[in-house]
NADH-cytochrome b5 reductase
Amino acid sequence: MNRLIPTLSRSRTPSLRVLPLPRLQLRHNSTDHRWRGISEQDSLFAKDEKRPKWLLPSLALVSVLVVGTNGYIYYTSPELRNRVPPLEYGEFNQFPLMEVIPVTHDTSLFRFRAAHQFPDSQSKTNRSNKNEIVLSTNEYVPAPNHIVIKDDSCQVGRSYTPITYGRNHFDLLVKRYDNGSVSSMIHALKPGEDFILARGPILSFPYTENMASEVVMIAGGTGITPMYQLIKQILRSPTDNTKINLVYGSRTESDILLGHELELLSTKFPDQLRVNHVIQAPTGALAGFGFEVKHTGLINENVLKACGMPKPDEEPLVLVCGPDGMIDALAGEKPSERNQGTLKGVLARMGFSPQQVFKF
Ligand SMILES: Cc1cc2nc3c(=O)[nH]c(=O)nc-3n(C[C@H](O)[C@H](O)[C@H](O)COP(=O)(O)OP(=O)(O)OC[C@H]3O[C@@H](n4cnc5c(N)ncnc54)[C@H](O)[C@@H]3O)c2cc1C
């Protein structure tokens, strides 16, 4: 586990080379009541005789003043005290955990402190006719993007999608896998004490505005996170008119992540965003949520058609993100981060081409 305290030992400050000091034997001189160095290497002290007597005490006083002033500034300035690095593409930095909010039985929201330099002009991108809804984050990093978190103890890295980039923080929704290396490490972190090692953001998919008239987002579980990021970006942009059809699979109603946020967005942008919840094993627990589950079971061809999936010749963009089993069944195996593999499964059978489908 990454603790805050060891940060000092792991800091990237170049290590100081310790120069050998003259070895000193100190002996009390009873005649003038001073401690004097008497070794033959004690040139520093020997030359003392030629130096003004006030020199050493003055140097000591100046040192104390400098160190004291710096310490005072550091401890009284929250900005300096809380200084953390920004996310960097190529380098792992330390980000202290500020807060943990449980969301479902196995998924929590983790807020990490980070220094972001957001251009203030960011808010200008709020479209005037859609500004009743506050898309409060200052995301300047093009969506969809992710970061990589490293478990320092075993040097394993995993990707996570920030759902919010705030001015001084970013938020992750992380599902805990009991035997999972990185997710269980993140779930064991203590706010105010621990930190993660992360680098990024990294563009997950090169989305450009209006690259397709409709984007179908098929998500399962925490696979909703890159979709949510992109949904917010599309709805925020005054020039992106892409229609979004989200097909979101969850095990039960209480496993739905970002349900309220999605509901709010689809209510505010009914002509642009359609949200279809597909619940594998419904319990009827959604009554209080205020949104309707129209489809049950796993996401398959019939469910996709019932959700209004466009035909391949209508040239939609199809994004798929979820557990391996879901990706395999819908679009064929994704062998690695950089290899999309062959398009197979439901989408291939429906006639979509590899150019139309992206697997996260
Ligand atoms: C672009 C991208 C974005 C992502 N964003 C998020 C996000 O926002 N939030 C989120 O929670 N996740 C996200 N993920 C998933 C995340 O990267 C991890 O895959 C996930 O957290 C599991 O990692 P882990 O190290 O905890 O588990 P792992 O150690 O990889 O194990 C995961 C599960 O698989 C089992 N397992 C592992 N190896 C084997 C094996 N050989 N055979 C059988 N079972 C095995 C484990 O027991 C465990 O149950 C994202 C993934 C990608 C690619």
Observations:
- Residues 4-48, 118-138 have pLDDT under 50 and may be disordered.
- The domain at 214-359 is CATH 3.40.50.80 (Rossmann fold).
- The pocket of flavin-adenine dinucleotide is lined by residues 146, 158-161, 172-175, 177, 179-184, 204, 222, 225-226, 360 (CB under 6 Å).
- Residues 66 and 72 are 10 Å apart (CA to CA).
